Amino acid sequence: MCHSSSDRPLIRSVAGASSSEGPLVLTSADGTRFDAYSARAERPSGAGIVVLPDNGGLSEFYKDLARRFAAEGIDAVTIDYYGRTSGLGARPPGFDSDEHMERTRPGTVDADVAAAVGHLRSKDGGAVRKVFTVGFCFGGALSWRQAAHGVDGAIGFYGSGEALRTTVPNLKTLKAPLLLLIAESDPYFPIADSRRIVSELEAAGVENQSVVYEGAPHGFFSSGDWADACDDAWRQVLDFIRRHD
Asked: Is the pTM of this model over 0.90?
């Protein structure tokens, strides 16, 4: 996992708030029910976002991130990946998230994201005008992949370029703009591969913006040692959403 159970996003406090927040159960197109967490903006901007966690799934870190988006006027839903293999509810002690991650499939994750997007576009979810995705680690490439599935923009923190090119063989199908937030010293997703996927996106004519955080490690978004990078990454995310909203 990128973030431990005690980690929280290092985001400076803002004046806004969420009007409501709490657990949610969504239903995918194949009938699978899965856990999610919703945070509605007190002063909605008309934008919504689906948060795709790391391989650990729906943790407090990503629930808190949904609340931070809501405080910025962006209705948010964080999803859990493991409804098909682990069912609903809290995970038991010793839950092996890596085992369940290996059992996911891009197409079923796409369907779960679509259910979250549908919720955001409904009255109960905020009736948003534009929908974005943001993912972390395992969720990074999954988020970028959604640019081929009708979202208005896709953001990924320390995602895998290899996973994106493998699951989206024709990058030209990515129709929405991408934001790639890259940790230069990521031991899991090497900087060379991140630079390669950026070049491939350029060659395919995919609108994209990439930011490389010099020396930053995988998971820097919750590290006090990388507060400046965290601040900049959060600004990049919000600017990206506002620019394409």
From this structure: yes
